[in-house]
Structure formats: structure tokens, C-alpha cells
Amino acid sequence: MRGRGEARIGTRRRSWRDLTPTASRQEEKRTNEEQVGGYEILGTILLALGRWTTWLCLGFCAIYAADLVLVHWPAGWFVVGLGRNGMEYSVLLIACLALLAFVHAPAPRG
To answer: Quick check: 101 and 61 in contact, CB under 8 A?
Structure first.
């Protein structure tokens, strides 16, 4: 209890270890990255085979939209020269995948 109060008012000395993510947080991040990577690899193969196109494209749109907000938005629109993390390519991917999902959507019954 004492350590929490001292940390709250800033009298406790902090080391760089206090600022680094814990091992469980790093493990969680790696697991999420592996899941997204697996979806991208398997999804690309299934997309090339023409299987579940609409649902795969919507999943890719969700992944790239989250990536756009979390990574690319702060960097701005264009990637110029040796710049990184511009969002124009992600927007293009989302637009193309959304169009592909729309084209391959099943026809309504009726």
C-alpha cells in the first residue's frame, strides 16, 4: 500500500523497468500479431482460390481499418521519399477490398 501512495505522489524512484511492458503484455501482443499474420496468410490463399471472398475481404477491411487508426493516422496521408507509415496505401487497400466484397456478395433470395 505504501508503494502505491508514493508512486501516486511521485516520491518513489522509478527505473526504466517500470516503464517497459510486462512479459504477459508482450506475450499478448505477440499472440495478436501471430493471429493477424495467420489470417493474412491463410486468407490470401483462400482469396486466391475464390473461397469465402466476401467474408475474407470484410475481415481484411477490419484489420486494415484498425491498423489505419492505430499506426498510420498519426503519420499523415502520404509516404514521401524515405518516409514511413503514410495512410494512402491502407485507404486504397480498404477501398479495393470493400469493392471486392460487394461484387462477390451473395444475391438476396426472393
So the answer is: yes
Count the neighbouring beta carbons within 10 Å of the beta carbon of residue 64.
20
Listed in sequence order, the DSSP H helices in 50-87 are 53-67
d(CA 58, CA 94): 9
What are the percentages of helix, strand and coil residues in the chain, rounded to 5?
70, 0, 30
What cell was used for 72? 498510420
Prediction pTM value: 0.71
Q: What is the pLDDT of residues 51-93, one digit of tens each?
A: 999 999 999 999 999 999 988 888 788 777 666 778 888 899 9
